[in-house]
């Protein structure tokens, strides 16, 4: 091996030895906190210079990018861009809740600044006392357009994990991130963070159509009525809740069978040896040996749901500008004979993401409703079910399975990206209005992770004024207690050119969901969805 290859291998081994293992996937976690004592010792002894330490880090970054998952065609649609899930978190708080970062935190950001690669998935933990130095260094990297780092808000994450999941404060203060945005404690947790994805909008579709699929006509759920039979918005909501209950009751046994299969077919002795309580209990981690045994379920997609229910409430039931039977017919026909009605739904009803309180509260109400319904269940390992609001890239294929919807969306088109994000093109009041809308969501709904996507133009970061505005924006994100935010910094023209001339843009990376990928490696439908996301040039 060359010297550099040897350094890469030794550093990678060093990371594995000194990081506590994560049960869901390997996560270096809070690298800056764990490795800093060793870094500081070597600096003080003159064994290592800052530049040499940076070079070692960048070698590790390169090593992370040598690993690529093999996925089948269907899996690749839901996890587009082949995300690996090496997530390094920097910043955050110590066990006493005090802001903490160090020189190694800044070197991790510098490594991303220099390389701009999609791995590792670099995360910065912020809090109300986060340092100006860390914030400015992170913003500089964001402005370069690699899609990193993403940001997590301790003010929105720590208390719900303590109060809603019963986790110990010392564990939660030290949380890290698995893969994309899934939250975990270190070395004592089997989080099963992608146990299921629940399509809220398909449940609403069936509620409005006698339990039948708009795309196939198949009877998929109970017949509680249809849009033309509900005499009030309250009746419609009651039927929707029953439809949710029906499919939740169907989902839970499926999850139990998957867990049983892992126990029988895939016990993991090595993982069990490094997860707290497994050895003491003499129990494999797949059987419930871990100290914390969670299963995370994603709700997909609250933005579309809020928009659809708001349109129904305003235009059908309150103002009676659209006849329920006519809308039911238009949905079955995918608006093919009623574009005027579709435009009314799109433009005459307020949308989530614009700081319209009653619309945002509809989304918040149903997100919390779904989360609370899972409280009555425990998973096969006798742990809790909890919820997340992120999609990976599933908002595209899951949209392909949803017919036309009451928000004016056409059949088979993508649902909203992210999980906390507004539907692209509908957030018209600026980025701060988006934050205000998202802040209505209860943070107990995102103990498994939440995801807010935003896209800014590169020109915004060219001036000192723009940087200052963005820093204030990030402080507002913290103050509003929103769990997560991430950014694409790219021009629409560059994305369009990259789609036409991929060979000229092989190194162009974009933020897909909770991860970064090479734009030219994404499927055309997902490329189009990223291009269509709202771009901001000011705050």
Notes on the protein architecture:
The chain has 539 residues and is α/β, with parallel strands linked by helices. The chain has helices at residues 3-18, 31-44, 50-64, 73-78, 103-115, 132-143, 154-165, 169-173, 200-207, 233-265, 269-273, 278-281, 302-318, 324-332, 339-347, 357-374, 395-399, 431-438, 464-479, 492-500, 524-532, and strands at 87-91, 121-126, 150-153, 176-178, 182-184, 189-190, 196-199, 292-293, 295-300, 385-388, 453-456, 484-489, 509-511, 516-518, 535-536. Strands 1-2-3-12-11-15 form a 6-stranded mixed sheet. The protein has a 3-stranded parallel sheet with strand order 7-9-10. A hairpin with a 3-residue loop joins strand 4 and strand 5 (182-184). The longest helix has 33 residues, at 233-265. The relative contact order is 0.12. The model is unreliable at 16-26 (pLDDT under 50).
Estimate what percentage of residues fall within beta strands. Answer: 5-15%
Radius of gyration: 23 Å
Strands, total number: 15
Main beta sheet strand tally, sense and closure: 6 strands, mixed
**Quaternary organisation of the protein chains:** single chain
Number of H/I helices: 21
- Secondary structure: helix percent: 40-55%
CA-CA gap between termini: 50 Å
**Low-confidence segments, ≥5 residues, pLDDT <50?**
16-26
């Amino acid at each position: 091996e060359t010297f550099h290859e040897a350094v890469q291998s030794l550093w990678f081994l060093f990371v594995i030895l000194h990081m506590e293992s994560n049960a869901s996937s390997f996560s270096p976690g809070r690298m800056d906190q764990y490795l800093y004592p060793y870094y500081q010792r070597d600096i003080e002894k003159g064994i290592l210079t800052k530049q040499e330490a940076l070079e070692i880090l960048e070698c590790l970054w390169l090593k992370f990018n040598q690993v690529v998952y093999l996925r089948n065609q269907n899996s690749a649609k839901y996890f587009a861009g082949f995300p690996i899930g090496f997530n390094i978190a920097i910043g955050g708080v110590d066990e006493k809740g005090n802001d903490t970062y160090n020189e190694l935190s800044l070197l991790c950001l510098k490594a991303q600044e220099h390389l701009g690669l999609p791995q590792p998935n670099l995360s910065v933990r912020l809090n109300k006392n986060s340092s100006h130095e860390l914030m400015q260094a992170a913003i500089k990297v964001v402005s370069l357009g690699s899609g990193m780092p993403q940001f997590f808000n301790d003010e929105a994450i720590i208390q719900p994990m303590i109060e809603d999941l019963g986790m110990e404060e010392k564990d939660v203060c030290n949380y890290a991130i698995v893969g994309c945005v899934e939250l975990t404690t270190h070395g004592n947790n089997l989080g099963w963070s992608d146990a299921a994805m629940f399509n809220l909008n398909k449940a609403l579709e069936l509620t409005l159509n006698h339990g039948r699929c708009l795309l196939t006509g198949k009877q998929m759920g109970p017949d509680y009525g249809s849009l033309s039979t509900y005499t009030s918005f309250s009746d419609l909501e009651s039927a929707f809740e029953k439809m949710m209950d029906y499919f939740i009751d169907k989902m839970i046994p499926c999850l139990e069978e998957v867990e049983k299969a892992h126990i029988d077919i895939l016990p993991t002795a090595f993982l069990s040896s490094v997860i707290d309580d497994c050895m003491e209990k003499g129990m494999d981690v797949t059987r419930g040996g871990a100290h914390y045994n969670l299963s995370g379920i994603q709700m997909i997609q609250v933005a579309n749901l809020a928009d659809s229910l708001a349109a129904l409430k305003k235009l059908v039931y309150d103002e009676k500008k659209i006849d329920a039977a006519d809308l039911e017919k238009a949905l079955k026909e995918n608006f093919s004979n009623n574009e005027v009605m579709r435009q009314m739904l799109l433009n005459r009803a307020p949308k989530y993401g614009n700081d319209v309180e009653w619309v945002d509260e509809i989304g918040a109400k149903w997100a919390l409703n779904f989360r609370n319904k899972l409280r009555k269940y425990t998973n096969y390992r006798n742990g809790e079910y909890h919820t997340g609001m992120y999609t990976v890239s599933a908002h595209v294929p899951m949209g392909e399975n949803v017919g036309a919807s009451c928000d004016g969306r056409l059949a088979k088109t993508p649902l909203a990206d992210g999980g906390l994000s507004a539907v692209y093109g509908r957030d018209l009041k600026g980025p701060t209005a988006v934050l205000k809308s998202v802040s209505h969501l209860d943070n107990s709904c995102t103990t498994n992770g939440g995801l807010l996507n935003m896209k800014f133009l590169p020109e915004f970061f060219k001036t000192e004024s723009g940087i200052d505005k963005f820093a204030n924006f990030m402080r507002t994100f913290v103050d509003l207690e929103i769990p997560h935010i991430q950014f694409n910094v790219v021009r629409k023209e560059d994305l369009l050119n990259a789609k036409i001339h991929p060979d000229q843009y092989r190194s162009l990376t974009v933020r897909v969901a909770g991860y970064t990928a090479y734009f030219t490696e994404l499927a055309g439908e997902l490329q189009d969805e990223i291009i269509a996301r709202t771009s901001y040039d000011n705050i």
